[in-house]
Design a protein that fits this description.
By secondary structure, the chain is mainly alpha-helical. Helix content is 69%, strand content 0%.
């Protein structure tokens, strides 16, 4: 219990350093077993924050019949969307780790990558600003772009992969993450607007 609480006590400092783009923070968390739970918690909070952002976007858009479907939107973009995004993030990390170790022959430890990439997922919290309707899409795109860039830095910090290998592995994992969420965003749509996906993936193409 005390072991895990140590990691959570350091979490604020890690996030502050990440916000300052002090990328040496990845070096600190990669080998710290106590950082596993806190960094995975960051990923989960960010995932559900993205779902909350798209839910608030849905509510403020005032779609025809939106009031009667708010519960459905809550379930699909916040609850299920957050769960699916977290699961697909795990797939993203796993795919990147397997490519690095088995295809490129680079030293890549899955646990180290989970810790660093979990912390790198923090910018997805920005997606909650989708509530500002006129800037909903820009904020969602900024969140996704920042997460992708920091994830690349996280991979390089937690493996001995060359920059080119890290980029290829990161893009491969991210592609699966984005494609599947994009597909889920068209499944069981709420009033023909968004499906089972959070954040930018909940917003249909005709709103972009």
């Amino acid at each position: 219990m005390g072991f895990q609480s140590t990691g959570f006590q350091n979490l604020g400092n890690w996030l502050a350093r990440l916000a300052r783009l002090d990328l040496t923070v990845f070096d600190d968390v990669k080998d710290d077993a106590a950082a596993t739970a806190p960094t995975l918690a960051v990923m989960l909070v960010a995932s559900f924050a993205a779902g909350l952002g798209s839910l608030l976007w849905w509510i403020t858009r005032d779609f025809h019949g939106a009031d009667s479907k708010t519960g459905e939107a809550f379930l699909k973009t916040f609850v299920l969307g957050g769960i699916f995004q977290a699961a697909l993030w795990l797939a993203w990390v796993y795919i990147a780790a397997m490519l690095l170790s088995r295809v490129f022959g680079a030293g890549a430890d899955l646990n180290r990558m989970l810790r660093t990439m979990g912390l790198a997922f923090a910018p997805m919290v920005i997606t909650i600003l989708m509530v500002i309707d006129i800037l909903a899409v820009p904020f969602a795109v900024i969140a996704l772009g920042a997460t992708l860039l920091l994830s690349n830095a996280a991979i390089q910090a937690s493996s001995d992969a060359e920059p080119r290998q890290a980029i290829m592995a990161n893009l491969a994992g991210f592609s699966v993450f984005a494609i599947v969420l994009g597909i889920l965003g068209t499944v069981a749509q709420v009033g023909d607007v968004g499906g089972i996906a959070p954040g930018i993936f909940f917003v249909p193409l005709n709103f972009l």
